[in-house]
Each structure stands twice: as structure tokens, then as C-alpha cells.
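My main concern about presentation is that the manuscript never shows what a single data entry looks like. For the editor and my fellow referees, an illustration may be useful. For illustration, here is how one protein appears when written out as sequence plus C-alpha cells:

***
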Amino acid sequence: MPAALVTALAALAAAAGCSSGAGAAPKITTTARAGVAPTPPAKGAYFGAWVPPEDARKRAPSGSPSASPSDDPSDGASGSPSATGHPSAKPTGKDVDKPGMASVVGFENELGRQLDIVQSYRGWKAPFPADLDTSVLGGNRYLLLTWAGGDTRDIVKGTYDDLIRTRARAIKATGKPVFLRWSRDMDKASTRERVHTAADYIAAWKHLRAIFTQERVDNVAWVWCPSARGFGSGNAGSYYPGDDEVDWICADAQPGGDYDYRDLSEAVKLFLQWARDRPKPIMIAEFGVPKAYAGRRAEWLRAASRTLQDPQVKAVVYFNSDEQREDARDDRRAFSVTGDKRAVSALRELATTPYFNPRNLPVTPGG
């Protein structure tokens, strides 16, 4: 890591004071190759989002929370099973006509800036890059590729080596920096059947990385991402493969459907405490304010902005979707802000805060 970057990060950590009460961040290291794979900004944090594609509105609800295709290890689908929250006005601007980009550009229109990171979900057996992936990689946005996990024991046995090798070569062939978030939320009980144990998960993670290394894939940053809740109710940290195996540490951090109201600071508190002992940049890959918070959504987002301005947090990704709701009336798991003027305005404030715009991308007036 360049000495200048280390110095800048250390200075920022010493100067920053954030509402979450975090102390100075550790010196940040990464195995990712600078200039080829995504590396953390010297100051601030990238801002990104998951914005479901337009055709997702035509699909039937999944009937269960967190049920994107990436949760099914045998699923070959892409996108999300149900989604709402697209801008009512036809989006305009650069890249709007590229495959899969209409919803992304529409969301950017609402925020008044381009995203740094666009998230994409792919099933374990789904080929990539898909249309959205190719469109993102063709511009100056980073792709966060969330790839589902297969059965960890089968992976270690070599059952899927050909599939893994094919995916590794496909990512290498793009020639563009890619965040790879494999088998997210591995600590949840819903994944136990294919994850088995923490030891099995770690062995599978190392097996994947070994194949990517054999294929000389150096444009990937490996993102390890359990649930934030797993640091309180479970043992998420036991799934950590080690500092030499991980580039970014991450958590999915919605406030939880069993709370009437809960600040993001509470949702990420134990995860951030755990992360202080790891010299890694932090990504919050799925965070969102529930529609159930109604008039307090803007308040929640402004508090979240303060919490996330943490010297170790280097990327945040908003989950602008309602697909996790259990039914049409489940507003505790609905996170799209589109159509809620006050929430959109507050998210725009967050996204255009200099801390979350480290590349100094243009900001349009409005909001």
C-alpha cells in the first residue's frame, strides 16, 4: 500500500470524530492490486446502491425475506424476484439506454449524482457478466458482484472447480475492477444447509481464492460479508477466513423487522467493534430505512450519515428495494425511498456529502 495513502488514512482517523463513538481506525491493508482491483479511497467512502431492474416489477413476490436469486445455490437467475421503487419519470442522462441501466440512472437522477458502486446479484450457477454487469463495467462505476454460494463441502471436494474456473476467467476477461462478494450472510440459519459450519465455509472460501489465483485474476477485491446482526445473536466472526484472505470486511445492516424503530448506529455497533481489530476497509453493503418509519425516515437517514462517516468505513451501498418484505403490507422490510420526497431528500444529502463523494463526481442542483 502506498505510504502516502497510509499517511492520509492515519491522519483522517486521528482527526475524525463520528457519532457512533468509534475510535481511531487501524491502518488499512488489502491484498487487492492497486490500479487493477478496487481499493479504498484515501478519504471518505464510496457511495453505491442496489436498484432492481425494471423487469423485476413483473415478477411475483418471493414470499420470504432476503430471497434474491443469490440465496439459492442452484438458481441460475439474475436480478431480484420482486421489486418496487422505480422513478415515475422517465430517466435521462448518460448510460440510460445501456442494458439494465434505466433504473440505475433513474435513481441517480433522484440523488443528483452518479453512483460509485452498482450492485448486482447472481445465482451460484448463473453466468456472468450479465447485461447490467457489462453496462456498469463499460463506464466509470465499480461493479459489486454479489455471487451466491454453493454447498461448501462440494466446493472443497472439487465438484464445482470447472464452474469456478469459468467464472474466474470471465471476471478476468472484463479487465475492469470488480468487488466480489461471495456467499453473503453465511452466518444466518437459513444458509446452514449449504454452508454447514464455519470451518467448512472458510475452507470453501480459500478453495475459491486458490482457483482465482491459479487463473491469475488480479482485478478482484474479495468482500467478506456476514450479517451485522450475527455479531450479536450469533458468531459471525468465526466465519472470517483471515486477513490474508480478505480485502474488505462487510456487513448487511438493515435495522431489522422486529424493531419499531432502530438507528443504524445500533444495527452496526457490534460489527464495528469487531472490525476495529482488523486492518481492513469496511463496506456496508446493504443498508436501508424501512417504510414503517414513515415520517422518521429522513431523521433516520441523517443519523445514518453521521454513523457512516467513520474513518474505517470506505464504502456504503443503499438497498433501494422492497423485495425483502414478506407480503404487500410488510413495511418493516421495505426500503425503497422512491416516491417519498423527504426520504429521497435525506438520502440525497447523504450521497452528496463530500465524505461519500471521494471521487468528486458532479452534483446537480435540486432535492
In short: The beta strands are 46-50, 117-122, 142-147, 178-182, 220-224, 248-252, 282-287, 313-319.
